[in-house]
Design brief:
Layout: E1 2-6, H1 10-22, E2 26-30, H2 33-39, E3 45-48, H3 57-67, E4 72-76, H4 81-89, E5 94-97, H5 102-116, E6 129-132, E7 135-138, E8 143-146, E9 149-151, H6 155-166, E10 172-173, H7 174-182, H8 190-204, E11 210-213, E12 217-220, E13 233-234
Parallel strand pairs: 1-2, 1-3, 3-4, 4-5, 11-13
Antiparallel strand pairs: 6-7, 7-8, 8-9, 10-12, 11-12
Helix pairs in contact: 6-8
The chain binds calcium ion.
Length: 236
Amino acid sequence: MHALLVEDDDRMARALGTALAQRGHTVRRAARALDALRYVREAEFVLLDLGLPDLDGLELLRRLRTVCDAPVIVVTARCEERDIVQGLRAGADDYVVKPFRMAELMARIDTVRRRTGPHPRHPDGAGRIVRAGDVEVDTAGRTVTVAGREIRLTRREFDVLAHLAARPDEVHAREEILDRIWGDAFLGTSRSLDVHVAGIRAKTGRPGLVRTVRGFGYRLGGGAGPAASGERDEGR
Ligand code: CA
């Protein structure tokens, strides 16, 4: 397998590169986020350090996730629960804290590769068109049509809608959406999610397209025809 090793520390990169090579992987190392973005398309899996000189690793992870669906294992000294949760919510497949045992990391790589399988995944439904009633969300083309007519959403509004559309049968926690799209569920951006959801409902004219699950989060609405009044809520 071809690995992309994103690591700015030379000693760590050498140790990891050697261990990966011993297990038969080919390795491309990127010491900066910019290089990681350049090389990621060829990678079959990614090891990602979060402390990088040119861009925070979590931000890089979000960007990688928009262009590649290879498994990503975060390998970092950041060990706070909040860091780990943010890493996983931002799209990491696993999270390994430094210092780590090399054998354990290699076992985790095998596990992640088995779990993610030979078939490409579509973490944000990349390349898919999701339909809900007369609404079509094209996550690759980043367009939304309602009854065949294109609707203009802001970038963030689209990101929220695409995130829900990627797994249309699931309820998505507020914190998960905030971490994934705003980068932090703890920054007091919570209100801003509601504003964006309201924007999606108003602009599409389909209040049921995004359903509120009270006290938890949101999900994509089912047959989201034109609704006569207000939001449709479900659950409590
Ligand atoms: Ca580092």
